[in-house]
Amino acid sequence: MDRVRICRFDQVIAEHERCWDEGQVCLEPLHYLPLLERKPGGLDHGLPFVDWELPACFELLRARLQAARPGGEGTREYIGVLRLLESHPLPQLQAAVEKALACQALTRDCVVQFLLPPEEWCQTTFRLEGREHLRQVQVATTAVGDYEQLLAGGGAA
Description:
two-stranded antiparallel ribbon
């Protein structure tokens, strides 16, 4: 068997390539991402991340985040972006990071927006299904004449 699977009951919680050489250690960086939130220095000094090669856009994002948010906050935001690899494949996250960099949207939350599937806007209709809390909202209609009063009173330029 070329792979090692770690299971909890019937669920596979980790899987990586088996190391066959004596003294060889195989570390999967994705398994250690949650630890980085408690120990962000591990990103630069932790053994699982030493030889981790990510596309160049990730290093650029990290540099910009660290410049914009000194004192470790930029690194923490970057770790949040890396944690997205736990639920999204690298090519998909890479594309999202590249889009975020292109429009200077330098937060994890902005990168997440580029991971969402695009909607067909020309055919999008707002529906209340799944939004039961909005059924109670009452919006009063506005008479266009109300705006004319604002103009007459000098309320708008």
